[in-house]
Design brief:
The complex is a heterodimer of chains A (768) and B (257). Chain A contains 24 helices and 10 strands. Chain A has 768 residues and is an alpha+beta fold. With 257 residues, chain B is mainly beta.
Chain lengths: 768, 257
Amino acid sequence: MMYRKILSHPKLVLGITGFITLLFALQIPKLRIDNDPASFIPKDHPTYLAKERTDELFGEDLALSIGLRDRSGKFFTRENLKILIELSEKFKDIPNVSDVTSLTTTDYIEGTAEGITVSPLLDPAAFEGTEEEIERLLEKLRSWVVYDQALVSRDFSAVQILVVLERKLSEEQREQVYHDTLRILRHIVGDSLEYHVAGTPAVTVLVSENMRSDLKALIPLVMIVVILTLYASFRRWAGVLLPMLSITIGTIWTLGIMALCNVTLSMVGTVIPVILVAVGSAYGIHIVHRYYEVERKEDLSPETILHEVVQDVWKPVFLAGITTLIGFGSVVTSRVLPMRDFAIFTSLGVLFVMANALIVIPCILQVRHRTLPPLPSSSGSTTLHILEWLDARLFHSKPASILLFAGIFALSLLGAHRLIVDNSLIEYFKKNTEVYQSDVFLRTHFAGTRHFSVVVSGSKKGDLTDPRVLQFMDGLANHLLQKHPEVSKVLSFTDFIKRMNSLLQPNGLYEIPANPEKYGLNSTSDLKDLISQYLLLYSGNLSKWADDALEPQTARMMVQLRTPNNSFTRIVVPEIYTYAQNHLPEGYQLEISGIALIENTLVDLIVNAQVTSISISLALVILVIILSYRSFWIGLIGALPLMTSILINFALMGFTRIPLDISTAMVASVTTGIGIDYTIHFLSSYSTAWKTVGSHGDARRKTLTTVGPAILYNAVSVGAGFAVLLLSQFKPLNYFGLLISLTMLTSSIGALTIVPMALEVFNPRFKD
Amino acid sequence: MKRSIGIAAGLFLLWIGSLSALDGREIMLRVDKRPTGKTSHALVRMDLVDSRGQVNTRSVEMFSVKDEKDLKKLVIVFHAPASVKNTRYLAVENEGRDDDKWIYLPALKRVRRIAASEGGSSFMGSDFTYDDMSDRDVDRDNHKFLREESLGSYQCYVVESVAKDPQDSQYSKRISWIAKELWIPVKIELYDKKGNLQKIATMDRIDTLQGFVTPLQTTMKNVQKGTATVLVMEKFVWDEPIPSGLFTTRYLETGKP
């Protein structure tokens, strides 16, 4: 047998393992972090392609939003405006910044008796800071609605600066821009002003930074927790070190391969090492535990002990590993890239940890064999009492307990029905964090940091100068603003045409010229020419809004949102399409795109992934039990505790409004992968007992007293490992840790209660 | 001893070198003073090539005249696309103050005065800005002669120009390849405010018309955006008698000089 052959060359095996581990360890520093939602969804997804098309035409609008507010409530003073000028100048010089939008970089167009004058709203070169200048500036800002809540807050206590990033920057480059921006702010802004930096780039950068500090803090912590539980179990350092060694090697290999495959680590990826430590310890424990047992029992040579241990242990360890692999691996069906990577690499990690437990631990035990002092007696007596009590209660009155489970089931369905789905990056952060507060600031004083584009296209050049389609765009904007308080602002191509119309026409109306007679023209075609001629006056400065300077075929409007979550986009997007169906003139098309939509798509993909991965993992796990026991019923019964745990999990999420997001969506599959071990453990012991005692009642009592404490103990230690995630800086990871700890408890208790109860009720036969 | 001879020789060579080097400003002055006609009349086609290679064509007619003080008057009549046909633009250069600018929009049927520092903005959505299309006073920049170099069939002086007042230019610097003898730039690299190469202008066709060296086709390539604009003189005449009434707002409104 191959396996035994490997074990007969322990030194060689250890040498090779050490070498491979070193090679992988050297790769780990190359691991990249990426938390941009746009890189979470597949590159061929329609939403991604739509965003690419819009970015291609109008430029990407990924920007840092900086809010500057005077604590006294009055921003427009000479000193503050000088600061604003200096900031705008400095921001322009930051590498990889394509544009800066502020009072100093925005043109103001005004009508004069003879024509029009274009000048900067605030001319940095000419600004002296006199009362008149400031009064004049305020007047300009009030004169055009476009500035409101974009450059200046409604109460004039704050101004906004947008620092627009170049397209296709790497995470490192974005971090650089973010830090340069902060450095400049710290350097220039005095105490009288408060500043807030938000926007998608800020949020992704902070997610990545917090992730790094999370990784640094959480991995040692989870190791300490697991070491403590191991030590409590073995009271011996060998029992602690050997499982830890197999985990460490497995984790290094996994991260090394991720780096080699150029896989980027996202927030969800932080969990990979934590999971491997929490889950992987079981395999090593199993082997070391058995080793001590065999060693204590008889006076044997190291080779013989190992031989026996390996014989006994490889099958259950392998089975536990495979089912865990199935659970984690089922997430691979997800089209959300970080979830898919998570599935691939945790599965791989589990495989590595398991292989190392099966190979490295026996090799070390062989090389460093010493007769060890006897193992202290197991401290399972309290647990045992609890189990006996539980058993007596639960099985005292069957109808009552069935009623209890039915009650739990019904309540869970009710809670699961209230489940909300959301995956908004800003909601990863706790409410007291600076970035969350900044986002709130920009949402309350300005139009907010979340937006999407509505792109309208005609079939030929110049179609977007047709007053009918421009009126449609205006109508849509008004409709959205009137109907939804969540829509804070709509900026549109049409705003610029209306402005020109009001400045150049004798009637001075801020409207789309749509009636030829009113404008002394003969036809709509003349009006189109008029609009083209307005555009000529903008001399190509509208490239963010229209695809051509004179005869656009495509134009855009930007809908800005006050809400931080995705649920609103789910309502408003279909509504816009319906509105378009009823009002968009013949021959035009409408497309919606943007980062808000990408987050929305992410939610859809998460839900789809959830349904598929739960189905697949449950089905495969049932199949594994069916194959092991050659009984269909036992397979189904074995899945009952998992289904109950998953249901309770969703119920809790529903009742406590924990959203289903990119990380909590993996709870069900992770539960299946780990929780099934308890059932398998229970079933294997139960089937042996059943065959010897013959009755369900006796088999149940015997199993509960023998493996019951072990199962609970294992669940508690895995749960404790995951509970470390409660210390993470991210809410989704806190939730993930909390929920997994919970499902470990429910699935282990379920294995000890639901399974024997169902076995008694359905009475399937255990075959030989 | 040997070393000090070496140093002396080096210094001598440096001295010789500085003697023969042409001053950057002198070169640019010669470019500026290159003889041209008093008036010009051109039919200009502009092909705007976007980043996907699609071409959009615009065409304008340009008239210009220079007075004794070398101050310029310019009229642009837009021909295509049809939606802006007969839009007319007049710019009059003033000594010591901003240019006067007027535009006539046919659909508006009125002449409006435009007061704008639009120099840095695009001309009709092309890769040329208004500034790119107008002459720039030599002494607004510091010029540095870099080297001599051959470019295609031309022997060139390479000169770097940086605005004396950084606010006075949309570029951080320009590097020009000036063809010897012709005293005309054959290539100009334009660098954005951050010092990155933004655009490259190349004079693809240079001809001698009526005895004056004249660029007849120029390509402006925006290397950052991947777009380009080709400016072709479909017709070019120096010293055509142009009625002075053409450079008036009355002409803008009526189309008659």
